[in-house]
Amino acid sequence: MLTDSTRAADFPGLKGIHYLNTAAESIPPVCVNEAVAEYMRHKSLGMRGRDFHFPRVEECREITAKMLGLSTNEVSFCSCSSEAYNLLANALDLKPQDEVVVTDLDFPAGATPWLAAPEHSRPVTRLWQNSNGALNLVDLASLLNERVRLVQVSLVSFYNGHRVAYAKLRDMVRLLAPNALIAVDVTQALGRVVLDCQDADILISSTHKWTLGIHAGGIVGIPEKSAARLTTKAGGWCHIVNAFDADRFETARIKPGAPSFSVGMPSFAALYALNASLRYLDQVGVASIAAHADPLVAHVHAGLKELGIATLCAAQPDHPCGIVAFKHERSDAINAALLARNIHVMHHAGRIRAAIHGYNTAEDVEKLLATLRAAL
User: Fold this and answer.
1) Which residues sit opposite 319 in a β-bridge?
2) CA 336 to each of CA 65, 174, 324, 333: distance values in angstroms, whole numbers, following the listed order
3) What topology is assigned to 33-282 in CATH?
């Protein structure tokens, strides 16, 4: 992943392209393709395939727990981050007098469950707005009080790559909103940056971005200290202790904490893939990935500055991540020029976002900047 030889062997799909869009979709390594093929071989065994399916889930739980800095009983899986957030809303069972703080740099999955609640039970939603692309703690302080039940943030923003100063945020929330739980979306961080938010009350991630997995997976991490407060009340079977007991039609006894978020049959294909991808990333080392990719991100920031392009979030040497984004009135022409040279970024509503992972190279960055220079 970090050398020409391993990149060529592990990511043949990158041949001939400069892929800078991992924040949307990753390019999985060969081992993920092999894991999905293994799932299909096991699936072809019919019911006997479950003898392989469930052990793979437990293997995936072990490596996911390691990557999150949690224990295995503090980690579970669902179908996607959106499902995880809706189950979180179910667990909290908020009332109109309760308050939730979200940010304007969050992905909709983490911000909309509170807005979509029935009017008679909808909590008050407070918006922590960014200032020049950054979330400043001084602006958060005025939103915190004893009525706040949840503070929802993304460790790294999908929109512009801003990375919150988690430790300072945590301390402020614990002091000024003592009844609040902290939820952190690590979708744009897990597998790319060394996490510093393991003591959040709940961690949520998708599986098809920096983790190098595939769709239909969602990761949930809930430390034991928060399990009692974060147990879903949803129906299902996989998360119910007495799902097939004699009293199953009289009461539903739900596993506490993270296991309560696995309400149905595991998404086996996604978890086979995630088991392989996280073990691959763990072998390479997230710290090594960051050491390789962070200077490339800094080079993009510097190159854009030379071109007179203001990024949507200033460079953060103390809180690095993999995303650089900017807006430009000629974004359509810029994106066309990039695609003509097999440079893949995200382009939406005038915004261009480059995402740099461990499989990216200095050549990718130079091609990006040279093409921007020519296009402008």
Assistant:
1) none
2) 41, 47, 19, 5
3) Aspartate Aminotransferase; domain 2 (3.40.640)
Handedness of CA 369, 191, 106, 134 (dihedral sign): negative
Q: Where are the domains of the chain?
A: 4-23+285-375, 33-282
Give the C-alpha separation, 330 to 334, whole Å: 6
Assign residue 253 a region (left: φ > 0; alpha: ψ between -120 and 50; beta: otherwise). beta
Q: Give, in degrees to the nearest 5, the angle at Cα 15 between 327 and 331.
A: 15
CA atoms of 323 and 8, how far apart (whole Å): 23
Architecture of domain 4-23+285-375: Alpha-Beta Complex (3.90)
The DSSP element (H or E) to which 296 belongs, if any, is helix 286-306
**How does 108-122 read in b/e, with b if 16+ C-beta sit within 10 Å?**
ebbbbbbeebeeeeb
CA gap 188, 194 in Å, rounded = 12
Q: How many angstroms separate the CA atoms of 141 and 286, rounded? A: 32
- Reference 7, options 35, 29, 37; nearest CA is 29
Per-residue model confidence as pLDDT tens digits over 259-289: 999 999 999 999 999 999 999 999 999 999 9
Per residue in 43-72, pLDDT (tens digit) is: 999 999 999 999 999 999 999 999 999 999
Whether the Cβ atoms of residue 72 and residue 62 lie closer than 8 Å to each other:
yes
Distance in angstroms (rounded) separating the CA atoms of residues 50 and 52: 5
Distance of alpha carbon 11 from alpha carbon 120, whole angstroms: 51
